[in-house]
Amino acid sequence: MNWGGAKVIAEVVVDIKNKAVNKVFDYTVPEELAHLIQPGVRVLVPFGPRTIMGFVISLKEQTELQNLRPIKELIDVVPVLNDELRELGMSLSEETGSTMIQCFEAMIPNAMRAKYKKKLLCLSDTLSPNLASLFQNSRVIDYEQIPANLLKEVKQAIEHKQVELIYEVKDQLGKKMIKYIALVDRNLDLSSFNRAAKQKQVLEYLIAQPNPVLKSQLMDELQVTHAIMKTLVDKSVIKEIEVEAYRDPYADVVHQQSKALKLNQEQQVAVTTVAHACEENACDIFLLHGITGSGKTEVYLQMIENVLVKGQQAIMLVPEIALTPQIAGRFKSRFQNKVAVLHSALSMGEKYDEWRKILKQEVQIVVGARSAIFAPFKDIGIIIIDEEHEATYKQEEAPRYHAIEVAKQRAITHRCPVVLGSATPSLESFARAQKGVYRLLTLSKRAVSTAKLPTVKLIDMRQHSTVSDQMILSDVLQEAIAKRLERQEQVVLLLNRRGYSNFMQCRECGEVVNCPNCDVSLTYHKPNQKLKCHYCGFESFILRRCPSCQSEELRFFGLGTQKVEEYLQDQFRGARIMRMDVDTTSKKGSHQELIAAFERKEADILIGTQMVGKGLDFPDVTLVGVLAADLMLHLSDFKAAERTFQLLTQVAGRAGRHELEGEVLIQTYSPEHYVMKCVVEQNYHAFYVEEMKMRRRFGYPPYYYLASVMISSEEYNDLIMACDKVNQYLRNQLGHSCIIVGPTMPYVGRINQRFRMYFMIKYKQEPRLRAILSQLLMYFQEGSVSLSLDFFPNQFN
Ligand SMILES: [Zn+2]
Ligand SMILES: [Zn+2]
């Protein structure tokens, strides 16, 4: 950048997450950095007495401000945020009421926020003499070793892809290096090695190769030992070259190349319609409503194929990829190394490596969870969001963004379509499709043409005696399982509650053992004999006496997956049972192993939480049982019915996806509820119509938009006083068209020692809403009280 000697001023967003400093600060750029700095790089700047990180937003020549302080150091040489993402970050900050710095940080991998060391990696053998001298001894050097007068040359070399700036991330895997072997002098005289046959063989091999050779490969092929290699290195006839390798989470997995499957007519229409939109650069939003097993993934694959042919890129979001390794595998099989995968089960270093492939445009597709929506692609041709109704697309901490909303914004910039797919679309999305805001595509048949939808039956648990404290399996379900075991078919059971028992109660005085930090009961985990809080992570050993009356009559109540596993083991001797919940899948790769083992039929029954409902495809599952279908139904949450319908439909969809016929048995205490009836009929439309009536009656989305203000404090009195002030402010400021509900105590009134209250704001149109709520953060966030805004609230617990 040539500034003709004029002073360069950088506009910087600094790393302070306080709403009051959510603005851009000006800094001067010292002369030695002026030629290196670019918008989108991170810098170190003085702020008060401290030195902090910041993002450079733009450069300019003039400012009205006086006494600017200079930037101290550049962290990046290549921008980590391109023009599009910087603008997106700014508007996301407005949309979500978060600070700009929170938005920018959400767009880059965690590794770049962690402790790291900057290094320079040599990629080419034809560097200028100055640079070549840096890499005399190693292919990687510390960035600090570069003399200041060479920085400009280094930057040019980075641009020409001769060297690369990398961050050495300290995670459990460490940095992964690959060793190559090269000859020191190609005109070597081999005669002196006549009496060392093995050594000579190595040298002849190397002479025959134009390039350095992978050390492990050479040793394998020639069957030589480390000692022989070392002798040659010591004699200075060969040298070892170390190169950093990407940590590839899928390195050990062989993905057999898959070919496009033949589509049925509905699938073909979906692919062609979206291809037309791509052709016309239309940023249309499609809702792909396809029943479970209707072959949505194949449709996504072919939509993406069409985009790749044009040389464009694709973003594919899946709810939580740790839950859907099968999908990631299908993308890898079809597109091989054109795919980067980003998900929470990867180590920090692996994620960083995958992200770099995207930044350098070395891949064309990213498959990932929510944050992959910020993939720094430059020419996006399509954005697909699978299971669009899932709550995981909304981030529940600042910045509280919704990936679908971000997708729509990026689609406008890139002039490309967005495809939202689901068997059970969110009410909001389906209502938009009905109104023609979204374009509806329907898949009404199962992709395996002989496969039928399973039969679904309700089991009324009210008719079963409750004398024996808890009825786990009704006779009907018990017999159905036995039948499958006999026929060597597989069973999936859903109980959406982990642990062994969900509360411990005193039989003398009725006291329930609660978490000391939260207003919820502690759950008993049998394998490690502990009581755990699922909200704050608190753990304690099992109590022997009631904390209130000292009685020893403490008993466990309620049902969790661990207890059901034990019960099944007892009922079906010899059956092989597998459990899938947060506790059995927390280890890296363990979830994938569980699924693979069940696929290989190493177990007969899979019992698990909602995880078992997610996108899994097991050909031999012919029975799905739901143990307590009402668990979520009666929560005081406007989405309770919708979530229950979605979960039950999804899990029912695991049965009979292939040749064998499927059956679904649902145990419930509310068989008359419209959710249960619609699940039995597998009728999304009927559910939609009923649920829309409820939403209209109680004024919920899609009839109103929602925003929430959550207020929390360790001091109950401070919380109440803050609520009063906020209440007054909201009612004074917001127009009459807004409905303000609250202050209300959420389902869990205290989490992690903080008391909580919230306001819900229902609105149809209030252009000043975001500004008014942003002001709240500035005015009422004092002392122990903290406020958070949510413009896409999903839950109020
Ligand atoms: Zn707790
Ligand atoms: Zn007691």
Detailed description of the structure:
- There is one protein chain.
- By secondary structure, the chain is α/β, with parallel strands linked by helices.
- It has six domains: 9-72 and 85-107, PriA, 3(prime) DNA-binding domain (GIY-YIG endonuclease), CATH 3.40.1440.60; 116-169, no CATH class; 177-244; 265-443, P-loop containing nucleotide triphosphate hydrolases (Rossmann fold); 455-501 and 558-696, Rossmann fold, CATH 3.40.50.300; 705-790, Ribosomal protein S10 (Alpha-Beta Plaits).
- Helices cover 30% and strands 22% of the residues.
- A seven-stranded parallel sheet has the order 14-15-13-16-17-12-18, sandwiched between helices. Strands 19-29-28-20-27-26 form a six-stranded parallel sheet, with helices on both faces.
- A hairpin with a 6-residue loop joins strand 23 (530-532) and strand 24.
- Bound molecules: zinc ion (ZN) (2 copies).
- One zinc ion binds at residues 506, 508-509, 511, 546, 548-549, 551.
CATH structural fold name of the largest domain = Rossmann fold
Q: Which regions have little confidence, pLDDT < 50, spanning 5+ residues?
A: 171-175
Count the E strands.
34
Count of domain modules: 6
The fourth-level CATH homologous superfamily of the largest domain is P-loop containing nucleotide triphosphate hydrolases
Helix proportion range: 25-40%
The backbone outline, from C-alpha atoms, is globular
Helical run tally: 22
| Percentage beta strand | 15-25%
Quaternary class: single chain
Helix and strand composition category? alpha/beta
